[in-house]
Fold this sequence. Notes:
Blueprint: E1 2-5, E2 9-11, E3 15-17, E4 31-34, E5 38-40, E6 43-46, E7 54-57, E8 61-67, E9 71-75, E10 77-80, E11 84-88, E12 95-96, E13 101-104, E14 109-111, E15 117-125, E16 130-133, E17 148-156, E18 160-165, E19 170-171, E20 177-178, E21 183-184, E22 186-191, E23 197-199, E24 204-206, E25 210-214, E26 216-218, E27 224-225, E28 229-230
Amino acid sequence: MKCSVAEDFILKGGEFYDAKMDHTKQNASLKMSVNEDVILLNGIFTTDKSVTSEFIMTGIGTSRWIQKPLCKASLGNVTVASKHVLQIKGETFGDISKGHTFQISDGAELYCEKVVVKGEGEFVLESNAMLAIGHPEGIYSNGAKGNIQTQKRTYNSGATYYYYMNSNPQETGVFQTQPKQNVIGKLIVNKSSTSQVLNLSQNLLLESPCMVTLGDIRSNGFELKVKEVISTAKLN
């Protein structure tokens, strides 16, 4: 079944399921697109009953994912479509279930703030997508640390990595990129004040300019190779 929500999707209570898997509906699934905010206040929100179900944040513009702890969310395939910006503004984010993928498409942006994206599924950041990282630990390829804590994590070497929020100091984290290892398309630092610091946690090679809008980068014993730095700050 296909469903398109032109404005907000709001769950205040009750139960929402993508499919009822029984003997008569083995191939049941849901392809649902939402153009604006997802607001999960209470109840049960489940989109992982079918391996082919997909929940898509789409449209040109910005939307928010606001989820309260009272809402239990089990997520199947979630896609942030190209040219869409998704901001996680709630206190939590639903678990990505095993066998499913949270995909940030080419040209899309995800702002995590300090919320952890977790679960037994996979997180995929495509080339030319942007991941905004607010967690003080940054991001990791393994372990229960940082903004992304799904079982499997794929970070593209052509993506943009944007470090922001007021965590001080904040770490880049230790993460592997594909197809080029320890290479990222662009690094942006935009902290809440000039005195706040981003520490490198590994060697990084940038294929595009490093932009420091607010804050400072410190090498922390590692090496950052860039073609050009656009900043008034210094790399200490």
